Amino acid sequence: MSEISQEYLKHWFWYRPDTGDFHWRKSPATKIKPWAQAGYLNPNGYVIIRISGKTFLAHRLAYLYMHGYLPEIIDHINGIKNDNRICNLRAADDSKNAMNRRIRSDNTTGFKGVMFHKKNKKFVSQIQTNGEQKHLGYYATAEQAHQAYVAAAKELHGEFARFQ
Fold first, then answer.
1. Does domain 6-92 have CATH number 3.90.75.20?
2. What's the rounded Cα separation, in Å, for the pair 156 and 38?
3. Neighbouring C-beta atoms of residue 139, cutoff 10 Å
4. What is residue 45's three-state secondary structure?
5. What is the pLDDT of residues 143-152, one digit of tens each?
6. Residue-range domain boundaries for the chain
7. What are the strands, taking DSSP E only, across 58-101?
8. Pick from 52, 62, 50: nearest CA to 22
9. The CATH homologous superfamily of the domain defined by 103-160
10. Could you tell me which residues come within 8 angstroms of residue 31 by beta carbon, excluding any fewer than 6 positions away?
11. pTM value?
12. Which residue, 6, 43, 100, 103, is most buried by CB atoms nearer than 10 A?
């Protein structure tokens, strides 16, 4: 993403921190009226805003607008990619962002951090931290295995822990 300054951003847009929406202050083109909402939803679920022919992710613009700088990664706390309210955005790194990921779509147990171990016919719980997979044990039920994951996630991931 090309860099943009907070000053330039505030010159062209109003940002509503309570809704996460951007609105044009001035008309950038004849078809766009001042105060019109800016941006569109891309196929990945993020809001995109085009400025002077360049594409920007709205959550990055919101963070810059409010804080004056851009961290390496901005995490959506609730996991909803188009929820760009400032209270839902926080600075992160790759590791912390990964901690807040939703349950994988190929998960067959319905519980994050849990899979069925066919060989011993038990549920295994595991968690990733600092780039390494940590085994949390084998359990008779998926619910018990998930409770082990939840306890470990609270301890290891802190505020970035996600349980679903």
1. yes
2. 39
3. 18
4. coil
5. 999 999 999 9
6. 6-92, 103-160
7. 73-76, 89-92
8. 62
9. AP2/ERF domain (3.30.730.10)
10. none
11. 0.81
12. 100
Give pLDDT tens digits for 38-66: 999 999 999 999 998 899 999 999 999 99
Burial annotation 54-65 (CB, 10 A radius, 16+ → b, else e) = eebbbbbbbbbb
Q: Tens digits of per-residue pLDDT, 81-100? A: 999 999 999 999 888 888 88
131 vs 47, more confident: 47
Residue with tokens 């995490």: 75
State the DSSP code for 5. Answer: -
Alpha carbons 102 and 45: distance in angstroms, whole number:
14
Handedness of CA 142, 162, 135, 118 (dihedral sign): positive
140 pLDDT higher than 60? yes
Retrieve residue 15's tokens: 């940002």
Displacement of CA 155 from its chain's centroid (Å): 21
Element (H, E) at 16: strand 13-16
| Rg (the chain; Cα; Å) | 20
**Per residue, what are the HEC states of 49-68?**
EEECCEEEEHHHHHHHHHHC
pLDDT attached to residue 2: 53
